[in-house]
Amino acid sequence: GAVVSQHPSRVICKSGTSVKIECRSLDFQATTMFWYRQFPKQSLMLMATSNEGSKATYEQGVEKDKFLINHASLTLSTLTVTSAHPEDSSFYICSASGRGGYQETQYFGPGTRLLVL
Amino acid sequence: QKEVEQNSGPLSVPEGAIASLNCTYSDRGSQSFFWYRQYSGKSPELIMSIYSNGDKEDGRFTAQLNKASQYVSLLIRDSQPSDSATYLCAVNYGQNFVFGPGTRLSVLP
User: Fold this and answer.
1) What is the pLDDT of residues A15-62, one digit of tens each?
2) Chain B touched by A28 (CB under 8 Å)
3) How far apart (Å, rounded) are the C-alpha atoms in residues B31 and B80?
4) Taking CB atoms and an 8 Å limit, are B44 and A44 in contact across chains?
5) A58 touches chain B (CB under 8 A)
């Protein structure tokens, strides 16, 4: 149990374009989803927390207009990086926690590697 | 500010030895504690959870929790080169879930 998927696993895009990353909980209902960013050899950095059906809560320093998060259902959250620039190149990881014994911890997706040229 | 601290390492141990990873946290009200393993270039995976004082064993892994001293540790027995990874300690504070910076473990063959 507790499987979280992410799509795509890797994306390369041109500067100025927008990229959407999907995060799905496959076998449980994710009441809360988290989005992280990780640069090489650095720690996980929490970007935002989203609860199903409500607006995401962003961490300090994360631009909400640049990183759009939607958590419209109990199994799907999306992160859209708008007008991506090379400095947005990073490893984006989602995690989820939810109902039915899955509320205590976070289960991570496999991550999406974004390269902006 | 709720904090979780770990020694960043690297911690190097020879193959077959016991690796000991430590973590301290700031809030006595914490109830849930977790260890994740993250291989280079991959996302974290949950390996242990512990909720009450004492030891919890799962295969070669033992998590230890001491709420009075506010620390949680992870012991890896018979360490293997495949255990080389970054180990993240995480604490569920109820409204917040906080990760430590991770300790990089290197098991030398």
Assistant:
1) 999 999 999 999 888 889 999 999 988 889 999 999 888 889 999 999
2) no
3) 31
4) yes
5) no
